[in-house]
Amino acid sequence: MDKLIDDEMLVAQFQSGRQNAFDELMKRYKSKIFSYLLRSVRNYEDAEDITIEVFFKAYRALDNWQPKAKFSTWLYKIASNLAIDYHRTKMRHPVYALEDTEIPEANLVATDLHSDPVQQIEEQERGRIIREAVDQLSPKQKAVFMLSRYEGLQLKEVAETLDMAEGTVKIHLHRAVKRLQTLLRPLWENNEI
Q1: What fold does the segment set 1-105 form as a domain?
Q2: Extents of the domains making up the chain
Q3: 179, 137 contact by CB (below 8 A)
């Protein structure tokens, strides 16, 4: 059965009074929304707090939700807006941010009998360099790039999530990729990436 239909059916069940339908929706999307927010805000506790807020807002608004877009797109839109609010607040009130090594997601490396510690270190360093390059993108380019490349949303879904025209999303994505190529080219040429 199509996931879009499943989501819409769960929303309809929730709207008709079945509260545990929301629990199923939250189970489906909690880790994806958290991962997106962690990459955006780069602070584990804040990402957890914002994830909770995303689902709180979704819960309060779900009675009136109409399927104009996929449910997941709507959730990403809420998450994206809260991440923007977080960054605005952070700009006004700077706070301590975690180093890449403190973000659990940055430390997820396969460890089996065939793992090479040198390769693991190189992978971690490569990931850190790429994250730093992504952080140098403009806020709109970064949002488009993360939703498209990290979260796997289609351009239409990114446009709906960020309230942009699809053509504008394409332009931001193109500029983001070009900028990343420029930033990362010296590393490729030196075989550091």
Answers
A1: Rna Polymerase Sigma Factor; Chain: A (1.10.1740)
A2: 1-105, 115-193
A3: yes
The better pLDDT of the pair 88, 102 is held by 88
| 43 φ/ψ sector (left φ>0, alpha ψ -120 to 50, else beta) | beta
Contacts 24+ apart (CB under 8 A), 19-25: 22/59, 22/62, 25/58, 25/71
The token duo for 100 is: 């890449």
Q: Is the pLDDT of residue 139 over 60?
A: yes
Tell me the CA distances in angstroms from 154 to 26, 73, 83, 128, 146, one per residue in order.
21, 10, 20, 26, 12
For residue 148, give the DSSP letter.
Answer: I
What is the per-residue pLDDT across 14-39, written as a single tens digit (0 to 9) for each? 999 998 999 999 999 999 999 999 98
Q: How far apart are CA 143 and CA 16, in angstroms?
A: 35
98 CB contacts (<8 Å, ≥6 apart)?
Answer: 42, 43, 44
Q: What is the pLDDT of residue 5?
A: 54
CA 146 to chain centre: 6
> Looking at the domain covering 115-193, what would its CATH class be?
mainly alpha
